[in-house]
Structure to design on (289 residues):
C-alpha cells in the first residue's frame, strides 16, 4: 500500500472540502463534521490524520494530513518524530511550494539532526550500511508496532532496497559535516571523529525534544544539571549512546502508541481489523523467513 502525506495550511478547510468530495474515505467520524476531525488531527496522537485502505486505480493507498505548523515543529524539534522520522528515509516529493523557505529549511535541518544522532550511536569506523541502518532506524526505536504488527526486517529491507537513494539524500549533509565524518561509498566504509569535542558538537545540534529527554535521563539521580552540563558529561561518557537511544524511545513510544489508538477511530472498526491483519501477516512472514 502506497503512503502519502499532505501538509496543509488549514486542516479544517481541507477536511471540509475533502469530506464533500470523498466522504467514503472517512470513518464514522465524518458525521461529527470537519471541525471535529481537524481537532482530532491537531490534538490527538502525532498531530496527523490518516485515511487508510482507500481504493484507487493504482491500488490501495493511505494518506495522512498534517498542518504546516505541526510538521515544522516535528522537523525542527522532533516533537513526535512521527513525520520527521519518515523523512529520514528517501521519499518522493510530489509537490513542494518553491516559496516555502520555512519548510525547505526545516527538511534540511531534520536530515542534519538525523545524521548527528546516527553518528553518536556509531563507532569510529563503520560500514555504509550501518550508517543508513542507524538513520532509518531512528523513527522505529521505541515503536511498539515493531514488536507487534510490523515486519521485523523492516529497517534492513528499507536500506537494502534504497541504498542509492540514501546516498543521494545524505550526500549534501555528509559534505556539510566532512570535518567530522568521511564516507567512502566506493569502499562502503566510513570514519568519524569520536573525540569529546566532536561528540559535544553533535550533541549540541540535536533537536530540542531529544535534548530535553537527555536532561531528564541524566537527572534521574535527583541532581539538577542544566543542558550545558548534561551535554558536556555525555560527550565524555562512552555509554552515552544508551541514554540517547532511551531518549528517542521515550519520544517514539508515546507518539506511536497514541497515534495507533487514534488510528482505530480514524480508520473505523472494519478497516482497522483489515489493516492490522495485513500487518500481522507481514510480521509472521518475516519471523518465519
Amino acid at each position: 500500500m502506497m503512503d502519502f502525506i499532505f501538509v496543509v495550511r488549514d486542516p479544517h478547510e481541507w477536511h471540509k472540502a475533502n469530506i464533500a468530495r470523498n466522504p467514503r474515505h472517512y470513518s464514522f467520524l465524518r458525521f461529527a463534521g470537519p471541525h471535529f476531525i481537524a481537532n482530532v488531527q491537531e490534538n490527538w496522537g502525532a498531530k496527523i490524520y490518516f485515511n487508510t485502505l482507500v481504493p484507487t486505480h493504482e491500488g490501495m493507498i493511505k494518506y495522512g494530513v498534517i498542518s504546516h505548523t505541526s510538521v515544522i515543529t516535528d522537523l525542527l524539534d522532533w516533537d513526535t518524530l512521527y513525520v520527521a522520522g519518515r523523512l529520514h528515509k528517501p521519499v518522493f516529493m510530489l509537490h513542494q511550494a518553491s516559496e516555502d523557505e520555512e519548510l525547505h529549511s526545516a527538511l534540511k535541518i531534520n536530515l542534519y539532526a538525523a545524521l548527528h544522532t546516527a553518528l553518536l550511536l556509531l563507532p569510529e569506523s563503520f560500514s555504509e550500511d550501518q550508517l543508513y541502518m542507524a538513520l532509518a532506524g531512528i523513527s522505529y526505536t521505541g515503536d511498539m508496532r515493531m514488536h507487534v504488527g510490523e515486519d521485523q526486517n523492516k529497517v534492513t529491507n528499507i536500506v537494502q532496497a534504497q541504498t542509492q537513494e540514501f546516498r543521494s539524500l545524505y550526500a549534501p549533509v555528509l559534505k556539510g559535516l566532512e570535518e567530522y565524518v568521511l564516507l567512502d561509498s566506493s569502499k562502503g566504509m566510513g570514519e568519524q571523529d569520536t573525540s569529546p569535542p566532536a561528540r559535544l558538537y553533535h550533541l549540541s545540534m540535536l533537536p530540542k525534544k531529544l535534548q530535553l529527554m537527555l536532561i531528564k535521563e541524566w537527572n534521574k539521580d535527583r541532581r539538577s544539571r542544566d543542558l550545558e552540563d548534561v551535554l558536556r558529561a555525555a560527550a565524555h561518557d562512552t555509554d552515552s549512546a544508551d541514554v540517547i537511544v532511551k531518549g528517542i524511545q521515550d519520544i517514539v513510544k508515546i507518539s506511536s502508541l497514541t497515534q495507533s489508538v487514534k488510528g482505530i477511530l480514524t480508520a473505523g472498526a472494519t478497516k482497522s481489523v483489515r489493516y492490522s491483519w495485513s500487518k500481522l501477516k507481514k510480521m509472521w512472514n518475516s519471523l518465519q523467513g
In short: Strands lie at 2-8, 48-56, 59-67, 125-127, 181-184, 189-192. The CA atoms of residues 90 and 166 lie 6 Å apart.
